[in-house]
Fold these 2 entries.
Entry 1:
Amino acid sequence: LLKKKADALTMRFRQILAKIIETKTLMGEVMKQATFSLTEAVYAAGDIGPVVMQNVDKAQTKVRSKKDNVAGVTLPVFESYTDGSDTFQWTGLTRVGQQVARCKEFFSKGVTLMVAL
């Protein structure tokens, strides 16, 4: 019984490790694109930090925690979900707004990948 439990945990650990390696590789590429899109948005619109801070009142992406049972051992599993309305839904009307919307898209994808890690 103990051998089966150890084998199940080892198999699950290998699955988690493979997922971490894949996610880290993807995250490097996404964050590179996100940083470049932020640079484009700042170049097009100037300093957008105060405008973003003024329009955001609560988090749109949130993290939910669940428990996964593997051979009697509980492992925490985190998942992200979107809650609330988008305060920047009308931002993409001009060229500057399109840059900001693209920047937001890349960074939200990066946050989702961080939660997956």
Entry 2:
Amino acid sequence: FLQFQLTVNVVALFICTVGAITGFGTPLKPIQLLWVNLIMDTFGALALATEPPTPDLLQRQPYGRNDQLVNAHMWR
């Protein structure tokens, strides 16, 4: 879920930055960015919330306070 959200937001930021640098104006208006963010957050959260927990997931230890949020496995 986090990887998906980071990807969507980084791409939106990249598109707006390239549009501002090239002088063509922003390809996405602020209200369009809000709608994209709302739709992507809603569908991603629904997919995450409706997945039933597995016994292995319920038995594992929680992640530590100092663990990395984005790890090497997510970059692949």
